[in-house]
Amino acid sequence: MIGGGAGAQQSDLPIKIGVMTDFASVYSDIGGAGNVEGAKMAIEDFGGSLFGKPIELVTADPQMKADNAAAIARKWYETENVDMIVDLPSSAIALAAMEMSKQFGKLLIATDAASSDITGQSCSPYTLHWTYDTYSNAHTVGSAIAKQGGDTWFFITANYVFGHSIERDVSTVVEAAGGRVLGSARHPLNSSDFSSYLLQAQSSKAKIIGLANAGGDLINTIKQAAEFGIVAGGQKLAAIVMFISDIHSLGLQQAQGLVVTEAYYWDQNDRTRAFGKRFFERTKRMPTMNQAATYSATLHYLKAVKAAGTRETKAVLAKMREMPVHDAFTDNGFVREDGRMVHSMFLFEVKKPEESKYPWDYYKVLAEVPGDQAFRPLKDGGCPYVK
Predict the structure, then answer these.
(1) What is the DSSP secondary structure assignment for residue 325, as one 8-state letter?
(2) Which residues contact 46 (CB under 8 A, 6 or more apart)?
(3) pLDDT tens-digit map of 18-28
């Protein structure tokens, strides 16, 4: 069943979008219910209907298991007439669902998953990668820290494709800058005790401890590092993939001074503030970059379907590449041939408690990194579908 997928030519069916997300585990704060809310806001802002029928939204939690993700994607594409799947809370889940997307010739947009392999060696003609990736974060945070003298690194790494991709991509940046990687300690996803990994990092005497994990794992690592007195002892933590929700959970007292990279921050300008405040009214939290990106990806998809006049995947993808991405998430985005949505990334420093003037006032901007510098050049990705 290659091409349009089941039901793709049946004009009597409503457009249906599936949000595959983490509702209860390690990545629920950075995506989860907030990603569902972002998709709902996009559907509402678009007008709520296409081809004379209300746009439908379905959700599922793969429980952080790749085989569950593949089964859900198969069911959605094959029997439930889902036209597009968005979110995908981990790289392993995204890669599994991408196989179903290819099999059924239907669209998938990764807004949470981070591995740069998604538009590299594992790329697909039916997958777009929207928010950030391990290459972009390595090249913004990693290079900034290396330039500040952080020339020896030890990694604490989530032991699956996401963590491995961060460690690989940051190591490349560090070594290109003349630095050295002294080792790594790998932990299972959703760990609670990081003491043995932190002891290894401490004993390595590396200037920088690179945190190649995210969500709840990242928060626990930072909290336990404080208990071990690691920063007080002279080593620095580098959080490669960190979100405003993580800062909120840690508090400014613990998070102050961290250098992070994000694609979106609610308090950057009038456009981002307007979306952030609308999102806050609905959720009582400011959006993460993934939640803003899920809004953006869903809205851009719907605009492309309307412009194409059809739900047929290849026609919609052509329109998504043709149309610039200009919305609450970014004002300078475009979709590249390998599926990468290219846009500016931002380097932020977390404010000290006394610098924060109101709730969720957490970041000061250090730099805006243009998309052509933040993301891996097309020619270097190894995507077999790029001519």
Answers:
(1) B
(2) 55, 299, 302, 303
(3) 999 999 999 99
Work out the burial of residue 307: count CB atoms within 10 Å of its CB; fewer than 13 is exposed, 13-18 middle, 19 or more buried.
middle
261 bridge partner residues? 347
Q: Is the pLDDT of residue 143 over 90?
A: no
Strand order across the beta sheet in which 16-20 lies:
56-60, 16-20, 84-87, 107-110, 127-129
Q: Using DSSP, how many helices (H) and how many strands (E) does the chain show?
A: 14, 16
- Nearest in space to 64 (alpha carbons), one of 35, 104, 105, 23: 23
At a CB cut-off of 8 Å and minimum separation 6, what does 249 contact? Answer: 29, 219
Any idea which of 98-102, 141-145, 327-331 has the lowest mean pLDDT?
141-145
User: Cα-Cα-Cα-Cα dihedral of 325, 7, 81, 36, to 10°?
Assistant: 20
What span, in angstroms and rounded, lies between the C-alpha atoms of 231 and 146?
17
| DSSP element (H, E) containing 137 | helix 134-137
Is the pLDDT at 360 greater than 50, yes or no? yes
Sheet containing 363-369: order of strands: 259-262, 345-350, 363-369
Tally of CB atoms within 10 A around 96: 21
Judge residue 193's burial from the number of C-beta atoms within 10 Å of its C-beta, 0-12 exposed, 13-18 middle, 19 or more buried.
exposed
Question: Rounded distance, CA 262 to CA 302, Å?
Answer: 25
Rounded mean pLDDT of 198-212? 97
Q: Is the pLDDT of residue 4 over 60?
A: no
Closest C-alpha among 378, 313, 329, 298 to residue 132: 329
Mean pLDDT of 266-291: 98
* pLDDT the model gives residue 8: 40
107 touches 128 (CB < 8 A) = yes
- Write the pLDDT tens digit of every residue in 120-131: 999 999 999 999
Compute CA distances 95 → 64, 161, 256, 262, whole Å. Answer: 12, 10, 35, 23
DSSP string covering 154-203: EEEEESSHHHHHHHHHHHHHHHHTT-EEEEEEEE-SS-S--HHHHHHHHH
For range 157-168, the mean pLDDT: 95
